[in-house]
Known about the structure:
Distance between the termini: 16 Å
CATH superfamily of the largest domain: Naphthalene 1,2-dioxygenase Alpha Subunit, Chain A, domain 1
Largest sheet: 7 strands, antiparallel
Structural class: alpha+beta
Shape: globular
CATH topology of the largest domain: Naphthalene 1,2-dioxygenase Alpha Subunit, Chain A, domain 1
Strand order of the largest sheet: 1-10-9-4-3-2-5
Strand content: 25-35%
Low-confidence stretches: none
CATH architecture of the largest domain: Alpha-Beta Complex
Order of helices and strands: HHEEEEEEEEEEHHEHHEEEEEEEEHH
Radius of gyration: 22 Å
Amino acid sequence: MIPAKSIDWPDAAPERALTLPARYFYDDAIFNAERERIFYGAWHCIGHVNELAEPGQFLTFDIFDQTVVVLRGDDDVIRGFHNVCQHRGNRLLGERRGKLGSVLRCGYHSWCYALSGGLKSAPRSERLPDFDRTQYGLKPVRTEILGSFVFANLDPDAVPLDEVGRGAEATMLKYLPDLAGMKLIEEVDVVVPANWKVIMDNAVEGYHFGLSGPVHKELAALIEFKRYKLEAHGTWWTYIGPPKPGATVAYGAPLAEATWQTDWFFNIGIWPNTTFYCFPFADICGTFNMIPLAPEKSLLRFGYYGPNRPMPAVTRACIKWMNEKLGPEDIQLNVTQQRGLRSFGYNQGRYLIDSERSNESEHLVHHFHRLVHQAVHPAL
């Protein structure tokens, strides 16, 4: 049961609001409520449609104790299934991505499933009375596509993705016009000892850009930081900054003759934990998923996707800069904040939210916290 004092978070005006109580970032009961009321019914970004370009290509995704597989069938349809054999519950696929032959075979007793999910064969099942293969196909999982990325949802009654992200795809295409042709460059998983919301909070505010570390200052120097704008659109949000005029170098590489998706710093978040982004002058679309593992542990999955053309040196430099400089600087902030939230000397602070909703205002953090609070306490 969620402690009663955790529910007490007055719905004050953002400019006067106190932050979400500290126990929301480490309490077991609250984390369990998030698992049940947010993540089991959320749309999870699995990967790009081009990772499933051919029949038999698959992607898997784990959320807590659940695992799904999304694959393209022989009929060219992308489908999702619970990643479990219908015989005795053996997990079918352990790899994150790969390609199957004509069937999906269970490694325990060799039950074999068609790429459309139906059971094709089960050794010795002919000896059973009244065994009907049609009753033992893989259990389906809902899949939908947004911005050429495939999402899956464990809840058959969940709100459709196009309602959760209504208008988001058009915004993505404005800044990332080559989305449909993207190919996976690389994917990096990092486990961080911090609550998933600590990581999200850090992503959706610009207050720390000029105040925290040298790499954030480098990023702020590439854009007109005073025009950095953070906007909530219900269950999706954006934080975008225009390029600083006259830039000739980024991430230590020259911009001359390079191509890029956009020269803006572009970020769009889809409730609850998926972000698509592009750094200035980089010819990529990045994906950033904060996957909760425990109250104070998260898996950060960074995906890098690029259009089907030679990669400019500045884009390679950007990926290296993100992996080796900006990412670690942000992660260190996540770790120190998580430690501080456990202090007997802290429970709530004050959001820095101004009436102008400026580039350094924390209004998007407050908006995200309100979505979390409403999901965890739906009766309020």
